[in-house]
Amino acid sequence: MVLQKIIRYFYRFVHCALAILVRNTVVLTKCISNVPVAKRDRGLSDARLAVSLFRRLVFIVIVIIPFSLVNAADEVPPQNVNPSAERELNPDLNSNLGPELNSELSTRFRTGFHVIEPEPQLQLEALMPQVLLLDLAGVNPLFSQDYRELVASPNILSMADLARIQANVASYWRYVTLLTACNDTGTMEVTSAVIPMDTPFQSVLKQITHLTQLDATESWETLVLDEKLTLGMTHQAIDIISKRLQVLGDLTTWSETTQVYTEELMVGIKQFQLRHGLKQDGVIGKQTLYWLNQSPKTRAVLLAKNTIRKRLFERKLAPSYLLINIPAFDMTLVDNGTTVLKSKVIVGKPSRQTPILDSQISSVVLNPDWRVPSSILRRDILPQIKKNGYYLSERKFDVYDYNGQKVQHTPEEWQALASTSFPYKLVQRPGAKNALGKYKFHFENSFSVYLHDTSEPSLFNKDNRALSSGCIRIEKVSELAQWFKEHLVKDKRLWDKLAPEVSHAQWFALSEKLPVHLVYWTAWLEDNGQDHYRSDIYNLEPELTNAVPAAVLDIR
Description:
By secondary structure, the protein is α+β, with helices and mostly antiparallel strands. The protein has 18 helices and 16 strands.
């Protein structure tokens, strides 16, 4: 009997493991096929694909398969246990829900170092938003079916039906727990019930439920404006805009028949613009109108998808880290669980995207020089040299051949060379005109990107700050550098000595590396419960899937 169960669970989880492996293979292959050939060597080579697949295979071997064997053994009834004592230890056995449901709700999942406690039974009103979130996030079609059941016939579903639906939800989060159970040292962490029930997550569930209800009760036709609307103007769309702001929570009261852009409406528009990362000028222009036309269902889907991505990401966070949310143009520095600095940032243009990645800041450079990447040389600098032979001297560039020898030419010769293959490397000297500014924060990555200062601080006043060639420019770079100096820089005395008037590049080692995460979140809930949205500047949302194979939901 024990052997039969072990074999059955072994094959179930091998099936699951293979599904995960196949899914990741397809995703990685698709990523590579969508990357221009010129970029493949930088980040998505065949070697990296092989390594990534190998890591997933190792995970399958050391986590999922052993888990299946232990899970099978756990279902075998103990041979020498007093039934009454077991009932005292497990109150679920005293319920009147029947043996099938008792078995479902009292199953414990164990590995040598990992324990997942039984899930408490959820009431219908608590279960429905959990299922709705996974449905909207596109996790698996099974949750669409489960949600339709809950909505269509809530009063006739049996306890067994509710237990089955809850088990599907628990299986997904159990899968997530397994994926993140091993920390960097390879040890296992102890976890309580896996279905998220914390306050921030409940706030998201409440908001997507509200948006879904709005979508069912409010019409949301696309509005078209021939011109921008400003204070005092009259337009037939004003009443519709006012009502939308009211149901979305940006406007408290409104007059249904005025059709006039009032001061009261401007307050609501500015609040709406704040929540969407737009310039808060009260003008209803192209971008503001775009977001006014996004239906509650579209918002609910965005919030659900991003919540799942954010939830998966947060499970790997260290107590201290630096986070860049690319479409929000925003940086957050967290020190031992507390946010200590937030700043605007500039990220890559859509044609030169800042990559999504995880790394560690290993050093800070004071007064850096800039070694120009070949892509920027070709796209940006050579066209400038063609127009102006003095460009290199004006911008303080030194030119070297591939043997490291410094090269000198006349302005006319530089203009002529700019039209050739240009067999030289450029290094911009430290100083006021240096593109990196005064500070650079170095971290290992295959995309040649890093965090740095800027010589053009006025660009931070723009609302759309996708302006760089891929690197991240930080507005509050001096405050960030000061935090590094106080907390992580080893040689603080040298820093204090050189910082005021250093004229050369000086690297500073850190006492420990700081994790840095470049993420892509276009929707989230603030601590006050307000939902925020940002433009999908790189059109990545369709590619960032949360889908898992049905076999994953067999993890019981």
